[in-house]
Amino acid sequence: MRVTVLAGGVGAARFLQGLVQVVPPECVTAIVNTGDDLVFHGLHVSPDLDIIMYTLAGLINDQTGWGIAGDTFACLDFLSRYSDDTWFRLGDRDLATCIHRTGLLQSGQSLTDATVALSQRLGVGVRLLPMSNEPVPTQIVTPDGVLSFQEYFVKRGQRDEVREVHFPGIEHARPAPGVLGAIAEADAIIVAPSNPFVSIGSILAVPGVRQALRERRERTAAVSPIIDGSAVKGPADRMLRSLGVESSAYGVATLYQDFVSTFVIDEQDAALADRIRELGMKVVVAQTIMRGPSEKRALATVALDAARG
After folding, report:
1. Which of 155, 160, 122, 154 shows the shortest CA–CA distance to 140?
2. Burial tier of 294 (Cβ tally within 10 Å: 0-12, 13-18, 19+)
3. Cα gap 233→27, rounded to integer Å
4. Computed over its alpha carbons, how large is the radius of gyration of the chain?
5. What is the reported pLDDT for 148?
6. Measured distance CA(20)–CA(297) in Å, rounded
7. What is the side-by-side order of every strand in the sheet holding 164-166?
8. Of these four, 1, 47, 134, 201, which has the most CB atoms within 10 Å of its CB?
C-alpha cells in the first residue's frame, strides 16, 4: 500500500508517528510545507521538514514539539554577543542540520536531494518531499504590516491579527519532483491535522497540486486540526476567525471540500457531522487527540480506512 500525507508542523509529525505503526515507513510519502523556510545567519532552515524528520527519527524534543531533545544553545548564546538577531532559537545539533543542508544546497543539490540525504542519515524510512524546490515564503499581512511567517509565529508570538496570507512567487513555483506522482499513485491520501492556511494552504497553492488532489478526491481524507472550536496547538483557530472562516471542524471542511471526500472529526464535534455532510463529504467521528502512541496509531488507522473508502 502506498500512502501520501500532506503535512506541516507538530500535528502532522505526531500523526505520521501513528501512521508508521500501521503502514511500513517505506510505503509512506509526506509532502511537507516549506513556506516556513527561512535563511537565518546565512543558513537554510526548514522548520517543518526538520520537525517531521526529528520526530520520525526519535530525536524530537517532546516538550516543545520542535528541536532536538537535550540540545544545547552554546552557539546561539555566544552569537548573541555579536548580534541582537537571535530570536529564532536553533540548538547546537539543530544548527548542524542546517549547516549541512546549506552546504548541500550551495553545492548545487536541490532541497529535495538535501532532504533525502539528511533523512537517510537519520534513519528515517518515510520519504519526505518538500512541496517545491523553489522558495515560496509565507507572508502574513497584519495591521502593523507584512511579516514573514517566522516573524509572526516566533518573534512576535502569534499576537498579531492575521488579515491575509500570501505566498509570493507561488505562481512560478513547481511541485518538487515526486510530489504529483505521489498523489497520482497513492492508494490513500491523507491531509494531516495541520493549520489549513499556513501548513496545508501553502502546499495546495503550488500550481498543479490542488488539481491533482481533485482527481483523487475519492481516495483523499482529512483530519480536522480544530476540536470544539479550538486548535490543539498553534494559531489555526484565531486565523480562521480573522480570515472570515468559522473556527470549527466545519469551517476547515469548507476549505477542503473540493478535494477531500471524507472528513475525520473529533467526538466532541459529532454535532457538526450533518452540516459537513451537506458539503458533499462523508464524515467519520473518532477520538483525534494524540496523547500517546496508542492514540496516534488509532487515529492513523481511522484516517487510513477513511481514505481507502
Report:
1. 160
2. exposed
3. 28
4. 18
5. 94
6. 8
7. 145-148, 139-142, 164-166
8. 47
Q: Sheet containing 220-223: give its strands across.
A: 127-130, 28-32, 3-7, 188-191, 220-223, 262-266, 282-286
Contact 54, 67 (CB under 8 A): yes
Q: How many CB atoms lie within 10 A of CB 97?
A: 23
Phi and psi, residue 127, nearest 5°: -80, 115
Residues making up the chain, counted from first to last: 309
Residue ranges of the alpha helices (H) in 80-223? Answer: 92-106, 111-121, 149-150, 179-184, 200-205, 209-214
* Cell 520542535, residue located: 66
Q: Is 79 helix (H, G, I), strand (E, B) or coil?
A: helix
Q: What is the rounded distance in angstroms from the CA atom of residue 131 to the CA atom of residue 134? A: 9
User: Nearest 5 degrees, angle CA 164-CA 67-CA 204?
Assistant: 35
* Helix 92-106, helix 111-121: angle, nearest 10: 140
> Which among 134, 104, 125, 109 has a CA at the least distance from the CA of 52?
125
Q: Strands, E, within 224-273: which ranges?
A: 226-227, 230-231, 262-266
Each residue's pLDDT tens digit, 135-174: 999 999 999 999 999 999 999 999 999 999 999 999 999 9
